[in-house]
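On clarity, I found the account of how folds are encoded harder to follow than it need be. What matters is that the chain and its backbone geometry are given together, residue for residue. The format is easy to grasp once an entry is in front of the reader. For illustration, here is how one protein appears when written out as sequence plus structure tokens.
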Amino acid sequence: MMLERPNMQGEALIIGSAGVMIDQTLNLERAIVFEDSDSLDNPEAVFK
């Protein structure tokens, strides 16, 4: 029902939710540093 036309409130809610998830993903990507990671540089060392 939220996606039925012309449900503008439903559309705004869904689009807004997607935008929030995209923002959260971008923030997580910025927060995680992959440089000099043992698990990426030498994946087999993780299980030792």
Remarks:
- DSSP finds two helices and no strands in the chain.
- Helices lie at 8-31, 38-41.
